[in-house]
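Supplementary Methods S3. Complex input for the zinc ion-bound model.
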Amino acid sequence: MTLLELAKKQGKAKVAIAARVDGALKDLSASVPDGAAVTWVTPDDADGIEIVRHSTAHVMAAAVKNLFPDARITIGPAIENGFYYDFDVAIPFTPEDLAHIEEKMAEIVRADHPFTREDLPKGEALKRFQGEPYKVELIGEIPDPTVSLYRVDGFLDLCRGPHVPSSARVGAYKLMNTAGAYWRGDSKNRMLTRIYGCAFASKKELEAHLHLLEEIKKRDHRKLGRELDLFSVNDDIGPGLILWHPKGATVRRIMEDFWRSEHARAGYDLVFSPHIARLDLWRVSGHLDFYRQSMFSAIEVEGQDYQLKPMNCPFHIQIYKSKVRSYRDLPVRYAELGTVYRYEPSGTLHGLLRVRGFTQDDAHLFLRPDQLDEEIFSLLDFTLFVLRRFGFEKYDIYLSTRPEKYAGTLESWSKAEAALKSALERKGLPYAVDPGEGVFYGPKIDIKIKDMLGRSWQCSTIQVDFNNPERFDAVFVGPDGSEQRAIMIHRALMGSLERFFGVLVEHYAGAFPAWLAPVQVDVLPVTDKQGDYARDAVAALRKAGVRAEGDFRNEKLGYKIRESQLQKVPYALVVGDREVAQKQVTPRRRGGEQLPSMSLEEFLGILRGETENPPT
Ligand SMILES: [Zn+2]
Ligand SMILES: [Zn+2]
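Predicted complex, serialized as structure tokens:
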């Protein structure tokens, strides 16, 4: 009996596209051995959607070969959200070509051609793929004496399978774009043309995904950074180096002010350190051995080598070591908005998210071993407080434990891991363990924040370190007068200001909450007649600490309101004759909501309520 016959018997023929037989994935055309354990695979499960996606790639390749018989086929796997297929063609496909390919695919789907499988000796298979050099190359590398081929609508491909039973069973799909890709990802090989497609089990899921892609495009921080005049990257300055324009710089200043005052309040000492230091410092810290590929080249000064700093740690350790520390002085907490420089290949740079110069909201804590538990617990609390203020309420949390190669003793590792774990549990935070993914110097907690679109961003990290206190001999004098080794914690909450700002821009789609907005209020006189009154209002708002601007251009009110909305300013205050006569303003929220006319004092009350207690 075949699986399809069994599926029909069990009423599963409409939902099943393949099956697991004794654990192995099989086509529905395969036969079922007696007594085998069969579970049905449907497009809604992980195996099923992958089969659907990969089958869609075959249908697309069939359409391509039909329309472009000279295209040479290579490989076409399923990927996240869809599939791709690489073709060797003389001229890359155009968007019009993709539309034709999509039409042809629809034809193949409508005709409901079966996917058929053949198992052949390699010699036979090679004959079938004459004129397809990439397939010939692939067959040559398969160790088995036989290979399997799949056919749909006359299109033959080398494939392990399984596939959907027929072309009508592929789900909802859309061809997205093309890209250049080297054969086997090697730049020495020929450049192929890759077609990317999305594929989902249902039309509804496809549409939700396309909508998400639209949203992502709309929120792209590089686009919004231009439109809102927040920042730029300039080739004359250099790739991966950020210019903060006045509006972006204002947001950064507010982020920094908040950060500094909260750190002072939480018992941190704020420090500053230079951007370069002797290369030898990085030899002691181990960075020259473990991190050199991420560092800029050394700079020679008076016959001595200096290094742009990739990290702030050694500086803070040196401040700690600048005097004798008693056990009573600990914990010592040094925090710095420390600008570091790291080499990243130019091809990987991306707006604010991946750069070569950035400012970490860094801190290094020096503790006695008995302080570890409590310190990590309050640190976790502090981290979440900061993230919440910026509107991030959802996290993915990972606890990374001891890797194979590690510094320090087994005992101190298990103590530190237990401290991290108990802090997470006391806070009631769900987390996943990443076994062996700790840094060589200690275990860590990584917090990925989830943005408005549900995307995860690695930002906060809390790392215990046994190694640096040893390398730099960071000690304190214990109660018995003996020297003891301090434990260090490295931690960053936002991670990098550049990256965090980029994430914020996308999270809020550029519409920052009032406390962060670079301009909080636009004052909009209806005509020139109210110009003086409007100027006074701007001055009064600024005097009250509000970031206010006025639009005194000779433009229609509707135009000014639209401009203010496009710039995503939280409030526009309209002033016409009536407002002047009654000494009032008429506030309008950026979403369009109109508030009743009120005095400037009353408006300030509303704005203060929002900025002093931002919704968390
Ligand atoms: Zn295949
Ligand atoms: Zn550090």
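The radius of gyration is 31 Å. The chain is about 35% helix and 25% strand.
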